[in-house]
User: Fold these one by one.
Assistant:
Number 1:
Amino acid sequence: MPSRVTELAGFDLLLSVARLGGIGAAARAHGISQPAASARIQQLEARIGVALVERSPRGSRLSKAGGLVADWARPVVEAAADLEAGIAALRVERDGQLRVAASLTVAEYLLPKWLAAMHTLAPGTVVALTSGNSAEVAQRVLTGDADLGFIEGPELPSGLRAETVATDELRLVVAPGHPWAQRRRRTRPEELAATPLIAREQGSGTRRALELALSPHQLAEPLLELSSTTAIKAAVMEGIAPAVLGAHTVATELAAGTLVGLEISGTDLRRVLRVVWPVGQSLRGPAADLAAIAARGA
């Protein structure tokens, strides 16, 4: 970039002097004082090396050289204004769209109320939501297909930063007619580990959290693997087998009595739900707003 034209504010002011007929009028148009406008013109003259404005008791006007410089500067200043407007339009478009990826528990049971709060805060923001298991969510964020993600897995993939936004607890559930439903004692971890369950697929945060909680014991192969929490609950209600799901996902069924919750002895089944984004980046705009809403619990 040539050194004499790296800063365009002085040229823009010079064009206003030419258009409005004086430094005072140009200063008012730019929202600055007349002494400040005069100083800016003088700085421009010093940088170029010629007098651009002829000053007299009757006012000021462009010199011959000033007229030439103004003619040369006009398309440059107009192009810079077009560039600024284009960049602003891109930012508005970017800030008006938010791509979110979320694990099934978050997407189905928590995110709707967060998005409702988001709509109140920024009604013009368009949210595009994709859901999947925690591994799939992490991959979408890492590849740039999502601006931020919500995961429930206990492990954080390399390349992501995370903050806790909510807590959850795994619950062992059975159908009301299942033999375990009448138990008065807690289920032992080794008994649960040895029981074929209806489970989420590999990559699910719920499944991984259970595997870690029961890691001292050998886990039986699942009786069924389903990628839908709703499908798992339906299968449990049919009495096929027990399942372990997040407390958020079974709260309605436990309250209605269509599922029975059982306690597990000596095992910590609490977990955290986290918002994730790429290392080296910061959450800005709508992404930062949604993360803050989630952390406040909407």
Number 2:
Amino acid sequence: MLRPGFACSALPWRAAGYLLVSGVTGALLCAGLLVAVVVFGALAVVLVGLPLLAALGLVGVAYAPWERRLLRLLDGTRVADPHQVPVRPGLPAWLRLRYREQATWRELGFTVLAAFLLWPVDLIVVGGALVVPAYLLGALPLLLADGEQVNVLKVWVVHSPAVAGALGVAGLAAAALCAYPLTAVAAGRAALARLLLSPTGQEVRIGELVSSRARLVNAFEAERRRIERDLHDGAQQRLVALSMALGLARLDAPAGSALATRLAAAQREAGAVLSELRELIHGIHPQVLTDRGLPDACADAADRSPVPVEVRIDLSGRFAPAVESAGYFAVCEALANIARHSGAEAARIEGRYADGLLTIDVWDDGGGGADPAGGTGLTGLADRVSVVDGALTLNSPPGGPTLLRVEIPCTPLSPTPPSPTRCA
């Protein structure tokens, strides 16, 4: 505002537009809130209005985005949304999160101020800054059009064209002078809006942590797939070639000689290393998980389990790679614990997706008594699931049976559901 030429710049006009739009919006908001309070209060007598009155606590959540967009009209600066994304889809999870957030109540406070205090100030200021200079500037044209007199500001009757012309010059000066208080009021209102509608430092840090965690998860999964691909296409192929070369060398060696014996031992060792490498590759990121999804990957893990496992998985499409990876490795860790510690004779894997939640249950008829503090890998498994905002629960009373449940909030990537996986 202290720069030369400020009064002739576009900023006063943007300030006037900002105050005008916010004033009109505030007046409409005031009328709407008064009607809603009266109607909902009357309905509260029959208990119908009680949830509606409670819903008024979220009126700021609906109004604040509009106010944040208006701030861009003033100076073009974008104001971030302070709200977090619910970890679970659906209206109940959204409502629980919104009622717990401080940003919701700050937005409600600003909405009340805008509806019952700020809008009259906005309209008075923008009206005074625009109407008074406009009346003064229009004095001479109106006098010339009337031919006799003009009523300036409804308080001063002017008959002389010279006086009307002087009032026009005064109107130009008044318009330039009014640009300063007009812009100052608009800037003050915008500062108040930013104070109440912008995310606080803690909310910014939480948002950055959530975003960085998602980026780290995606980067970690991409690195796993890269290592699996490099091992599969590089080291594994070289070991296969080495095993074939040793086999051909055995054919050229004299039968029963020491050389033939050593070549056979070397070939067996190469085959063992190749088998271990394949298991390592499968543990890093199985190709079946990438190609065919979670149901077939779980069925493959069940086939490799020494305990008979029944698989019942019915999922609606594919999911994000991080979600599928977390669910798959949860199943693998659970099957490993069953084989090592439970003494079970049978196990079962069940998977389903409903209401935005992927649920995987792993059940066994073993001796129970599983303890996360006992070094069975359950703590690390819970950490892996929590990375994708999931939860792990364990029910393992002494004597069994044991039920491990993994719940991950997610959304299918493909709308077409695959055929259910049923195998034993």
Number 3:
Amino acid sequence: MIFKTLRDTLKKTTDAISQTLGIKQTLIPKDTLEEILIQSDIDYDLVEEILQSLPNEVDRESLEVALYRFFRAESYYEKITYTPPQTSPLVRLIIGVNGAGKTTTIAKLAYKAKSEGKKVLLGAGDTFRAAAIEQVKLWGEKLGIEVISSQMGHDPSAIAFDSIKAGLARGAEEIIIDTAGRLHNQTNLKNELVKIAKVCQKALDDKPFEKFLVLDGTQGSSAITQAKIFSQMLDIDAIIITKLDSTSKGGAILSMIYELKLPIAYIGVGEKEGDLIAFNQDEYIQTLLDGIYNG
């Protein structure tokens, strides 16, 4: 089996940079660099902020220092990185709009946990779409993982509660619960997600659990608006980006971290259950720099 890396996933982004640049240089004019970064879907204001203190001819080291600044939280020494809570069972609430790759991401997280020897249970909590319930059940069958589900239209909070209680009874170490991505209006969606989160908290006796937001990487920086809406509904713990291998908008990751101040936990790198990698900020920055600079 060939394991994909973040470098492979960003190939369309770095290829697009190479086409714009032509021959790589050790010094890049500031205006050319601006064009490259904007083309990679880094937000314009962020590009301006990155470049403002740099000289007219920019070398790799100067840009590297400037990029690393945006992976910091409020404190210079505090990186915006993902650390899962040390709790058992680890309950993960998966949030995101329909079409972002939410169900496939659930399967990937489940496969990863099972591959690590953990007992996993899934909750088909998107009860507003019959197809979503069936997709989770099909993945459960394929991976040999139990799925708690009900009929379309059933209360999703009840599914979340039943999934956690079933997981606790069966000794599950990881419980992954799907949620609805779209309801009749935003207020309904917000109320539903807040209710599910409260029910999870109650079922776990106030122990911590995770809220992952799944974003479609092909949407680039426009996914940030979507993320902000969900962040207003719930305290999101981390982001999972899907379909990044299908786009040249890899620079949007930098914009997401800068705008949202949330860590990227995982990157989806394909359609198979094993196509999920942990996000690594060093690999990400070095891949971008390798696409720009010679040597």
Number 4:
Amino acid sequence: MSTERRTLNIGVISLGWMGRLHARSYLAVAQYFTELPVRVVLHTAADPDEGGRNYAYEALGFKNAVSDYKELLANPEIDAVSICSPNFLHHEIAMAAIAAGKPFWIEKPMGRGAAESQEIATRASQAGLVTSVGFNYRHVPAIAEARRLVRAGEIGTINNVRVSFKADYSADPLGALTWRFKKELAGSGVLGDLMSHGFDLAQFIVGKLDAVTATNGIFIQQRPLPTSGAASHFSQGVDSAPKGEVENEDYTAVLGRFESGAIGVFESSRVAVGPRAEYIIEVYGSKGSLRWNFHRLNELELADSHDGYRTIMASPAYGEFSRFQPGAGTSMGFDDLKTIEAYLYLRSILEDKQYAPSVGDGWAAAEIADAALESAESGHWVDIKQVDAPTTYDR
């Protein structure tokens, strides 16, 4: 890797929670990945909301803030962009970034379904653009060790996998009917929002899925119409407000087959009472098993045929842990995972080689979600369409 530092002018589109996290993550790369020969400049933020633009200037230190993302993309000084807008704008903005020749880091779900995701991935690949998709749970050091153990055959032949992504962010029936509950604006519900992470983790650790059967449920049928400005998971309505119909799934249960012959069980809910952000993956092999829970991000449970489970604390030997903490027992957090993601994206740009999760990976997760939706309607097993854009699952 060259030691001469290259300046990259960054543009961030949409300065909500995730856009602000992207901006902070870019800045953090210089602190944690000091060998990366890059000088990051937060050049321009784009947000139609004046509060977002002011935050970009005053808190994050952006040089410029504009209301229209098209102005950002048209600026020849911008070298790379982050797309952190609501789902219904992902495709539009990604296609505009591709047309402008800008590498982009986009949050998941990449499109409102497999069709939009395919177009993004295909066009970006044809343009030769480096990309990144926000599959941040891949970057947990304990997950890095889990993947190593599985891929090295240390727990034997994989027989079955269980993935559970449950959260309570929509458990309150008075949660407002924001765009997230509308098919036209969000696409799928919990399949795209949470389970896309689960599908990605399973394929990242174990290998590709090739077929699924599924059932879905909408447990809170109606929600209060939102007040002006309500946009987040946590926006609240009032009981006396007019109500509208929830259009996409609160819950999904998916049974899957991996190409290897292993069986996968996937479950996800956005209305579970109890789990706050309980994201679990368990992998069972012929010689042992392992399990990880985001609630205990820095721990990996490992079992063999003799002693049952033992808990291993993440340490500098796992993934990028040593960048953040000097020894086991001192914890990393969620924001650190996005810093690793920012590093992989910037390194991908500098070396013109895909290190970050790619748009091909985003498309692959969307194809699984679409197959699960089709299965839930038909009641049949559905083969998953395999993508023909580059992925990083076997990197």
